[in-house]
Design a protein that fits this description.
It contains 12 helices and 5 strands. By secondary structure, it is an alpha+beta fold. The protein folds into 2 domains: 3-122, 2-Layer Sandwich (Beta Polymerase, domain 2), CATH 3.30.460.10; 129-253. It has a 5-stranded mixed sheet with strand order 3-4-2-1-5. Helix 7 packs antiparallel against helix 8 and helix 10 packs antiparallel against helix 11. Keywords: Transferase. Residues 10-66 form the Polymerase nucleotidyl transferase domain. This is Nucleotidyltransferase domain-containing protein. One of its GO terms (molecular function) is nucleotidyltransferase activity.
Amino acid sequence: MHEHHRRALEALAEEIKQDPDVLALVTAGSVAQGRARESSDVDVFLILKDEAYERRKNSNDLSYLNREICDYEGGYIDGKMVNVRFLELAAERGSEPTRNAFVGSKVVYSQLEGLQSLIDRIPVYPEENRERNLRDFYAQIYLYGYYFSNEAAQKGNVYLLHHSATQLVLFGGRIILAHNRLLFPCHKDLMKAEKQAPYKPEGFAEQAEVLLKEPTVDKCMSFAAMLLGFRDPGIPFEQAVSLFVDNNEWNWLEHEPPLTDR
């Protein structure tokens, strides 16, 4: 950790000790993971009391930004506010991006016993989801690679063609990460994470870039074939259709639909 980042964290810890709503300060992001540049901002989690968390949640006020505390040019603190229950749920059933957000996280200041132990349980690959995820991801590859891309080409649907290409790259990346038992960090860092995977189709990143820059139905089908040849998908096309419908069209039956479908 760069010294100026350490100073910023120490200064923030002293400041929040005066706030009765804050129980702990935890590092996050590039600083926590040991890959921060000198100019990087400092990502943190502030652990709040339950009452304060609920109050801020109800007013959509769970982000934290402090531009005054850093003593280096352009530096600032970028934080998210959570409570202990959030951390417990993240350790129990958090999404992969949420789990990844706690990679390398350390407690800087805390009034809570055993907080570091709880934090350490979060950035763990959820093995219990792996086989189901791989099956569901391959269903997406089947449909976008061989059905939707073809529909887009036949009907001149530029939006659908580009959507098919991005979904193929997304779920292709997810397959590679799951195969290697690596957490999916977020869309922004997907390709960076893919580069860390030891087992993957040769030329995946290069083919992904070619597909995204100028998608065609032939490129979509070729990309899908590459992924289907990487490992046994475990399902035929007919089952892929049902899985796709369950995950993309009927997901509202089990829980609130995603924002894209609300």
